[in-house]
Amino acid sequence: MKLGEVFRFEIEHRLRHASTWIYGGMFFLIPFALLHAIDGGANRINSPENLAAATTILGMFGMLVSAALFGDAATRDIESGMHSLFYTAPISKSAYLGGRFLGALAVNAVILLGGPLGLLAGSLMPYMDPRMFGPFELFAYVQPYFLFVLPNLVFTAAILFTIATLSRQTIPTYLGAIGLFIGYLLATEVYDRAATAGTLVDPFGILAAQELTRYWTVVERNTLSIGLPAIVLWNRLLWLSVTAGVLVLLHVRFRFAHPGAAGRWKRRRLIPPPEPEQYLPIAAPSAARTFGFATRARQTLAIARYSLREILKSRVFLIIVAGALFLVFAYGWDIGAIVFGTSTWPVTHLVAATALTLPMSVIFAILVALYAGELVWRERDVRISEIASAAPVPDAVSLLGRFLALVGMIVVLQGVMMVGGMVLQALKGYYDFEPGLYVRILFGVKLADYILLAVLAMTIHVIVDQKYLGHLVVVLFQLFAAFAGSLGIRHNLLVYGSDPGWIYSDMNGFGPFMTPFIWFKLYWAGWALLLTVVANLFWMRGSERGARRRIALARARFGVGVARVAGVAAIIIVTLGCFIFYNTNILNGYDSPFEAGVPRAEYERRYKQYENAPQPQLIGSKLHVEIYPKKPAVDLRGTYRLRNSTTTAIDSVHVIIYPGIEARSITFDRAVEQVVDDDRLHYSIYALDQPLQPGDSLRLSFDLSYQSRGFPNSGISTSVVSNGAYFDRRWLPTIGYQPSFELTDDDTRREHGLAPRPRVSSFDDDQALQFRSAIRDADLVDIDAVVGTDEDQIAVTTGTLVREWRENGRRYFHYKTDAPLSSGMPFLSAEYEVREDRWKDVGLRIFHHRTHTFNLDRMMRSMKASLDYYTTHFGPYQFRQLRIVEFPRYASFARAHPHTIAYSEGSSFLSRITEGDVDRPFFVTAHETAHQWWGGQVAGARVQGAALLTETLAQYSSMMVMEKTFGPEQVRRFYDYEMDLYLNGRRVFVNREVPLLKVEGQSYLYYHKGAVAMYTLRDHIGEERVNTALRHYLAKYRSAGPPYPTSLDLYAELRSVTPDSLQSLLRDLFEEITLWDVKIERASTQRTDSGAYRVTLEIKASKLRADSIGVETEVPMNDLVEIGVFAGAESERGPGEPLYLQRHRIRSGQQTIIVTVAREPARAGIDPYMKLIERETDDKVVPVEMVPRASPPPG
Amino acid sequence: MHLEIRDVSKTYPNGVRALRNVSLTIPRGMYGLLGPNGAGKSTLMRTIATLQEPDSGSIHLGELDVLRQKDEVRKTLGYLPQEFGVYPRISAERLLDHFAVLEGFTDRRVRRDVVDALLRQTNLWNVRKEKLGGYSGGMRQRFGVAIALLGNPTLIIVDEPTAGLDPAERVRFLNLLSELGENSIVILSTHIVEDVSELCTRMAIIDDGEIVLEAEPLRAMEELHGRIWRRLVPRDELPAVEREHAVISTKLLAGRTFVHVYSETSPGTAFEPVEPDLKDVYFSAMGGHHGRRVARPVTETGP
């Protein structure tokens, strides 16, 4: 009865507050708006998975609203002083707390209903493109709300309400919300190590859903719902019981007592009553007071110091610091663990710019919002504001002092972060702390961001003038800034605080990013100044509230001084805004995504007609390249020798210059006439006075230059930087129309009025079979290049170094190829150190950054082992040298050029290999070295399946080198990672899946499925047979073409070495998309008379074929699958010591297999090492049940 | 130097007319502002203390325009609001020191002296190191006075300062105020008549946003001389008496009622004349028998 009344009263209270309605509106509008911003591609917007994700994530942000609602429900009575009346009323604890809790809960539950409703309303809007939606399923909207959002709400609400009730404060309540968020992050860490445990400890149940849909393909994700699976229900049950426990705790701990009066350790110190002494006569000491600028400055600092002390001394702040450190350690412990579970050395820029920054950005956003609110509200909260307002202190001083306190808090936190980062590094055994870099990242670039945020948060709190709403507005703004790009607001001049981004590199520091960063931040500092003026005008002083009054007051405050500051701010904004606009839009054409596609569409429309016009081929190039890393600029001069390799006379030459490169001159060694000069599309056509006869050649000389001009809005060019230039052939002129420059994405093509085109030509496209590189103007080229660079740098390009000299304060390198090469021409320049070694008569070199020495030995070892294996099994190495050249981490790939591997510092120079890890530097080096054969010696035509001939073979080759060097154990681990990456790729990549033989651009197929398929084949038919096939393929096609080989030619070789019994496996792996599903249902054993053990395995098997979008059909299975029986302990490496391991022919359906082993078995199963392509992994092995021997019949 | 309030009016957004054409001239010395709860006292105090804007009217402190030169006024202002809190976790000394900086005492040594002197004067010296959260009501009130006195204010505004003080605290507090009144304008707003009668040289009575009387307490009592009559009335006769006479106050005493009646001539033999005190002045003014309301038709009787 009474509970009902408290409940109703709470709801009425909430309904009277505008904030309730604002929260509700926002939770409806955000998902509604979100639907307009998404373009899911093949993934349907209203797929059950998307709806669940959107609803649940929105629910997580809802914690901020919950913190406000439940914080208010719990502390309102104390704050208003009403508690004495409530506490003395004849009402039970459960009625009082229960009513409050349930009332707030009901309101909050309705607010969160906005999520599914907003999504529903958005998807029903008539103007939505129906192609982006799947069929309407009501259950998909309802289920996430009841399965995730509502239980999560009950749980978070119980926690937050308990914290608020027992602490009687706001900040701990918000910290509770942050703590829950951190709990989720930690659960993801657990999840990465042990999936089932992780799904259980995640308080929000998100990971459970993620685990269930882990290997779902697009079709499954579009149509299937996770339903009500056990793992989710267990998770929900677990956390609801925690909730109940928390509420019981609250009930026990709560007292109807005056705050501060109760509690063991908070007992009030008794104050000695002042002696009733005589009052001294009032002769207030007359002392000098001053009110000049110096006083104002001191007052500002005094307020700052005072407010900062208030923050720092509170226990809450200690908790924040501890929590932040905890998070940083949890997140930073495995920093950079990207692939194969390999970790990375915690170099300072990774720790400072990633570990200390990424997880903290959300927390800083909330903390700044929170403390800005506290600082704005503190005096009013303790009710001393009237006294303070009457003090002779200008508003600006009060505001500025508090703002400085907020900045001070951020600085203190960053200091703590810095110490924490160094401790983390030391604990990981890395001692090169680079304190200067910490300071530049934490107290430079990041502080600039946080200060801008602090100004905004203070201003919002001053203007909104409602604490809880203020918090929410600040956080919402942050969200807006984060997602502005997907809402179509891309220009950094339009989103407060934004910049073109930056990447720190050990090689190149902040490189080209710092200058634009500073200009943008100064521009935003102008806005911040303007915000400060606004905050100053609306600063709450005295007791006037209400918008009209405050505006009148602001008008009255707008004096000359204020106008002057506003003027300065406006001048900064306008001048810097113009300057930046000049840089981003005039010097570097700013293009919306659509505009960016215009020239390419235009290029295709105008010049596609020349696609098959006969063009001469590049057979030799003599280059002189001057790199000026500090400017940055490049001069590219040279002469091409072009030969007519066709059978008809050529009457014109088409020349394309890469965008961003300026052509000073293009000249021919004979009379030509320029008939097309398309400046915008950089396309020129030169008509030859005398046609070039078949077999004849001509010379084309060019003088090009690259010069970086100003800075763009995004995508700052990193090709030529002060230390670590890397650019390639594309910067040189290209001959003839190139289909690879066309727009590829179907949607983009449609927007520009172009018909969709096949992503890749098919096997039977005769024209395509003539080419094997993306740029169709060359096959084998002689290169003679002189490259000049700064005196302290080394420049590298294709060819053998013939001469090196210094001239005019610059350093020159002359490279020359021994024989014509296919593709290539990378140009790299940096201050390298060189590690040298030899393998037989091949010189090995690693050009690396001074400090990147961690893995040089592994790379060197890998080059040797690779050369050993490949020359033994495939064929001779075609060069006298092999080198690795490092480039900055602006891209993270490694790429093989002829005898030169360009290798990003972010790839594996910093990998840290511990016992048992997959040796990533070794693997990457072996893979790239393999490309000297696969891709270097033989490459397929640019049709479907081409990547199988390069990447898949390189994966296989490197696996074999690893197997030879480290043993099969490491390759097994590698295989497992590849399997996971393939199955995950099916989920993540929305472009359709194809069989391996027809692979197009899907990296998850040609790398990961390719590795799985090749290694499975090797497992079945043996290393020698596979290598024989590869050797034959290489020998047959090394100097063949055009037309060039395709994956079918390799496949023919593989088929010829595969016995008939395994041809179907070959077909499953290469020609089809095949998924197996085998599991063991029961295993039992019985001792035989001879003392051996007879093990009976009941297994079930099926085989599925999937089509390109993941629709599956079952096919009869008749394949060889391993059956294993094990003894001993299970380990990370496998199910134990194998007593029996043989392939059995397994058919679809239930079957029983009986094997006999000598010792007592512990476990038995099918496909125990998970070699088949399967999605379920935990139904392969079961413990063996012991069945007592039937007792002999009584005789 | 005096405080000049002219035609100040203020209506709150919810329609409450807190001040209606208030005009007062307040000289140096203690000035009492008397009125029932909700009469507009605090609004007037806050407006004088630069914390609120009137809809119309002007306020001048000597040469200073209080509504426009707020920062100048604040330098000479000491304000003790009706209700205020303190930061519970810090000591009186520390918080007073902080306010001293805000009041412009930037020199550390001078500030130290000022803070020490004020802590002694307000008799908080012994507890200056204690956390403010543990202070009693009286100590906190004195601490408020210490803040208000920072910087030798020439205008001191104290809003309902004696509410919640025990009798001894109250006496000490009022003594402190009256000493201040020797050099400054001290405006004391209160609904307790005794506070004014004991201290103030001048006073005003405010009701429903209007000044109903502005006078010197002594002279006001003199003016009422011979017009206040008293009678003990049995309870059942009270309605009749109230109908026939201008009853300004009643007081229950042992089952019977003491009635004070305003009358320029003797209201009858049952009544005896009394020497008017400030309460009688207050109730007469509130009841419209005396002061500015007399001209208006009486719409309501006093309490």
Give me the oligomer status. heterodimer
Head-to-tail CA distance between termini of chain B? 37 Å
Let me know the average pLDDT of chain B.
85
Largest interface: A-B, 52 and 64 residues
In short:
Chain A has 1195 residues and is α+β, with helices and mostly antiparallel strands.
Question: Mind sketching the topology for me?
Answer:
The complex is a heterodimer of chains A (1195) and B (303).
Chain A: H1 2-16, H2 18-37, H3 48-80, H4 83-87, H5 93-112, H6 114-124, H7 138-167, H8 171-193, H9 195-201, H10 206-212, H11 218-223, H12 230-253, H13 293-313, H14 315-332, E1 343-344, H15 348-355, H16 358-381, H17 385-389, H18 395-427, H19 435-464, H20 467-483, H21 514-538, H22 547-557, H23 560-587, H24 593-607, E2 617-628, E3 633-643, E4 650-656, E5 661-668, E6 672-678, E7 683-692, E8 697-707, E9 725-727, E10 734-735, H25 746-751, E11 778-790, E12 794-796, E13 800-807, E14 810-816, E15 821-822, E16 827-830, E17 833-839, E18 842-848, H26 856-873, E19 881-887, E20 894-897, E21 900-904, E22 911-912, H27 920-930, H28 946-966, H29 968-988, H30 1003-1021, H31 1023-1037, H32 1047-1057, H33 1063-1071, E23 1074-1087, E24 1093-1106, E25 1112-1115, E26 1118-1127, E27 1137-1147, E28 1149-1157, E29 1163-1166, E30 1181-1183, E31 1185-1186
Parallel strand pairs in A: 2-11, 18-19, 19-21, 23-31
Antiparallel strand pairs in A: 1-22, 2-3, 3-8, 4-7, 4-10, 5-8, 6-7, 9-16, 11-14, 11-15, 12-16, 13-14, 17-18, 20-21, 23-24, 24-25, 24-28, 26-27, 26-29, 29-30
Helix pairs in contact in A: 1-5, 2-3, 2-5, 2-6, 3-5, 3-7, 3-8, 5-7, 7-8, 7-12, 8-9, 8-14, 9-10, 9-12, 13-18, 14-18, 15-18, 15-19, 16-18, 16-19, 16-20, 18-19, 19-20, 19-21, 21-23, 26-27, 26-28, 27-28, 28-29, 28-30, 29-30, 30-31, 31-32
Chain B: E1 3-11, E2 17-26, E3 29-34, H1 41-48, E4 56-61, E5 64-65, H2 70-75, E6 77-80, H3 92-102, H4 108-121, H5 137-149, E7 155-159, H6 167-180, E8 185-190, H7 193-199, E9 202-207, E10 210-215, H8 217-223, E11 228-233, H9 238-244, E12 246-253, E13 256-262, E14 272-273, H10 278-287
Parallel strand pairs in B: 3-8, 3-9, 6-7, 7-8
Antiparallel strand pairs in B: 1-2, 1-4, 4-5, 9-10, 11-13, 11-14, 12-13
